[in-house]
Amino acid sequence: xxTYLCPDCGYRYDEAKGDAHEGYPPATKFADLPExxxxxxxxxxxxxxxxxxSDSESK
Amino acid sequence: MKTFVxxxxxxxxxVYQDRKRYLWLASLFYPMAAFSGIxxxxxxxxxxxxxxxxxxxxxxxxxxxxxxxxxxxxPPEEIVPALEDDTYYRWLPLxxxxxxxxxxxxxxxxxxxxxxxxxxxxxxxxxxxxxSGLGINTAHELGxxxxxxxxxxxxxxxxxxxxxxxxxxxxxxxxxxxxxxNDPASSRLGENIYRFAMREIPGCFKRGWAVEAERLQRLGxxxxxxxxxxxxSYALTAVFQIALIVAFGWIMLPFLAIHxxxxxxxxxxxxxxxxxxxxxxxxxxxxxxxxxPWHSWNADYFxxxxxxxxxxxxxxxHAHPTRRYQSLRSFPNLPTLPNGYFGMYLVALIxxxxxxVMDKRLLALPHINGDLSLVNIDPARRTEMLERYGSSAPLQxx
Lengths: 59, 398
Fold this sequence. Notes:
The complex is a heterodimer of chains A (59) and B (398).
Chain A: E1 3-5, E2 12-14, E3 51-52, H1 53-58
Chain B: E1 3-8, E2 12-17, H1 25-29, H2 34-44, H3 52-68, H4 80-85, H5 87-113, H6 118-143, H7 148-158, H8 166-177, H9 193-218, H10 229-248, H11 252-274, H12 302-307, H13 314-319, H14 341-348, H15 351-363, H16 382-389
Antiparallel strand pairs in B: 1-2
Helix pairs in contact in B: 3-14, 5-6, 5-7, 6-7, 6-8, 6-11, 7-10, 8-9, 9-11, 11-14
């Protein structure tokens, strides 16, 4: 289960937790989020902008 | 005054005092300006005094914006986390929520208990609406924040001007699509405020409802479920406004109708002036570039910013929407309005004057430099705009 970070506002999408308010149940993969997903907090960064934190940790 | 001290690895110790700290109380207490007309009327007896809040806000704030001019000071970036965590700043917009409820209640009680002429009733309703328009600004500041409590308070204050869809629409619709042809809340070159209002008011309502219905659908719930955040706010509006009608009679119907409309008009005015003609570039895949500071008209005027929780530092707000009011920044070379919001609201009421003041400023922006392909143009007036401005050589910056 990976986490993905909004590069503008710091919102973190945790696959293990999902996002209950937005309607993404726990264990929803980031890849399975809708293609038009935008950051639920700031709305100014899209799915493609999110940073895969497991990537950055392994580098 | 509170002193912020931060140890920075490269810059050493940074000591900072925010000289606007207590001036932000103006944003909390300004709604009470609505009482000024009533107080003068009760003292001197003439209904003409009731116009005071309108003159004070549109005229007074515009005058003081001209008089005091701009304030471009930014807090040091290293201090911003401490500034944002300071609960004092958080409490001010939260306390502004009950302020708006009390102001509407007092204004309604005044109308309900005094025998006013029809023009006087309209003026009091406009004054109340003006202040409840500031309530949309309070909701705007709170609705962008991440805590559930602040978002709930935003919904509560939106119930005062009966604009419950605003936060959902603004955050998920307007911010996402700002300065693109698809955004009903971004005005276009050649579009006057009246035509804009006809597009903006219904367009934003539909988009706000659609965004919330889509979220509820993902949750497997009906759009009419009680968790619908738009409906929650509108339900509160129904409670407030029906209670006023029960308490003060049918006179509340015209009062509330004018009040609600004029509060909406404040938002329409703000939306109209905030992005006029500005356009984000489209990427090859059809998406738009990220919103940059030059995709909003900015206004650093000291006086009106103190009444609006610095909403007019709009460039930084759109580039970084979750930043709190006390830490919004001014940047050099931004698209800049020639007066604060209230002065520009007046200019917008007279379309030829608006075009005269704004079109040349728009076309002279460094990132546009007379290139109309970089401008958001009203499709109904595209040919006319191209004929009027298209033949000119790239303009020199004003």
